[in-house]
């Protein structure tokens, strides 16, 4: 899958939510896009300086089943996951199990922003 460099001064995969989130994606063609988003209500905060990594489209795209692992090298990989079909915590758990350092869940057919919340407290405790 295509990858893009990504700067994320937010909280994605771990414990305390950040107050504000900014996503800037830069493609191989040196073009960039910015996206409005909200941070997860669960997971650890990202470093103050943000997180730079390679954005990889998740497979399966909705992450409701275990994901295909990112390439095995020393890069930081962030999973791009479709919203819907299962809970946010299950999506994040599957991304973590596959080896992704962060997750971006994107809407399908809507621009509505929602906070990512957990449904299963036991599953949330396994997200590190």
Automatic annotation (TrEMBL):
The keyword Zinc applies. It comes from the Eukaryota. This is PA domain-containing protein. Residues 1-21 form the signal peptide. It comes from Micrurus spixii (Amazon coral snake). It is found in: Membrane. GO terms for cellular component: cytoplasm; membrane. The keyword Metal-binding applies. GO terms for molecular function: zinc ion binding. It holds the Pfam family PA. Residues 55-111 form the PA domain. Keywords: Membrane, Metal-binding, Signal, Transmembrane, Transmembrane helix, Zinc, Zinc-finger. Its main location: membrane.
